[in-house]
């Protein structure tokens, strides 16, 4: 039984031996993400003072250039990971191509690559709604000591060694897995320490919440339309409740605690959906499966999809296992 109120640092040390690659590097990597999370959290929480600190592109009252928070978060995660000299490469939603780190240094023995969505749902910032950061970690497949390659990033989600998110909500939480379950840590901002608040997080097998942008309903495939109508029917344990925040991390986090399903399907407007496979869908799918939930594109397990490009999009259905399987049933029957 995991003792609550354990700090994230204590948790990482205690669980390092259980991680099959016990070099300690992954622990240092999670620690660097912890630091970046605190730095970004501080800035995200200030964003409400836009009229004082200035909107993006302006200069604030100190005459400093006010950065868009996406840009700021991206820079802080990259800077923190670089400074700790732990990874050999980084890919980010905010960067067209991957970033190679110390690639000319033959002594660079770093063997991890990190893929990030530094600030997901950032359009919610201006309306004071919660947003998140998402990370996905792999071991490189190219030889250590050589420049990192695109293949190091185009790995299937089932090769991830760790994944997680930070949700900047009513409280700031870091939720992650290294393949041995999912644990949630809540930041005490007064002392800047994350404490284990949600040990062994699991999706309820069933739920009564569905999260989808119903404004796109007429553009959805028939199977998705049929599933949404199923959620709304007066029958058995339905109608379900519709909850859609417009922030993947926030909808996922609520659904994992209460039970529910999140859907971002393809549509006649977006043939592959909107969410990115490598740094949104794969890490959330790893967390979902580790929390006894499920994640697919409607037909194929997300973590089995062979990536073809860094920023590719896939349809995404994720959450309580029985709800995802019901949605997949409607998708199959509509074929
Ligand atoms: P829409 C945010 O931009 C995001 O990537 C997810 O966090 C969120 O669930 C989704 O897109 C919202 O997209 O098209 O419904 O506004």
Automatic annotation (TrEMBL):
Gene3D superfamilies: 3.40.190.80, Fructose-1,6-Bisphosphatase, subunit A, domain 1 (3.30.540.10). Pfam families: FBPase (PF00316), FBPase_C (PF18913). Pathway: Carbohydrate biosynthesis; Calvin cycle. It catalyses: beta-D-fructose 1,6-bisphosphate + H2O = beta-D-fructose 6-phosphate + phosphate. GO terms for cellular component: cytosol. Its EC number is 3.1.3.11. Mg(2+) 1 binds at residues 93, 117, 119. This is Fructose-1,6-bisphosphatase class 1. The gene is fbp.
């Amino acid at each position: 039984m995991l003792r609550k109120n354990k700090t994230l640092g204590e948790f990482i040390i205690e669980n390092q031996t259980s991680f099959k690659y016990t070099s300690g590097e992954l622990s240092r990597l999670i620690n660097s993400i912890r630091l970046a999370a605190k730095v970004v959290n501080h800035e995200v929480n200030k964003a409400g003072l836009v009229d004082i600190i200035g909107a993006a592109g302006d200069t604030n009252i100190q005459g400093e250039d006010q950065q868009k928070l996406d840009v700021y978060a991206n820079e802080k995660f990259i800077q923190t990971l670089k400074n700790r000299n732990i990874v050999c490469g980084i890919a980010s939603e905010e960067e067209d191509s991957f970033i190679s780190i110390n690639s000319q240094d033959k002594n660079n023995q770093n063997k991890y690559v990190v893929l990030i969505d530094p600030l997901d749902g950032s359009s919610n910032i201006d309306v004071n709604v919660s947003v998140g950061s998402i990370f996905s970690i792999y071991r490189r497949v190219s030889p250590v000591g050589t420049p990192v390659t695109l293949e190091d990033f185009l790995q299937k989600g089932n090769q991830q060694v760790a994944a997680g998110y930070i949700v900047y909500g009513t409280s700031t939480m870091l939720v992650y897995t290294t393949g041995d379950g999912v644990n949630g840590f809540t930041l005490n901002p007064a002392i800047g320490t994350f404490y284990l608040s949600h040990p062994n997080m699991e999706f309820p097998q069933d739920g009564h919440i569905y999260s989808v942008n119903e404004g796109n309903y007429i553009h959805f495939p028939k199977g998705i339309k049929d599933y949404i109508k199923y959620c709304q029917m007066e029958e058995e344990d339905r109608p379900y409740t519709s909850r859609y925040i417009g922030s993947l991390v926030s909808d996922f986090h609520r659904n994992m605690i209460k039970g529910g399903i999140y859907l971002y399907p393809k549509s006649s407007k977006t043939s592959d959906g909107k969410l990115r496979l490598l740094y949104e869908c794969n890490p959330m799918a790893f967390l979902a499966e580790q929390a006894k939930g499920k994640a697919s594109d409607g037909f194929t397990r997300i973590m089995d999809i062979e990536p073809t490009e860094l920023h590719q999009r896939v349809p995404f259905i994720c959450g309580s296992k029985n709800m995802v399987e019901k949605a997949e049933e409607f998708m199959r029957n509509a074929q």
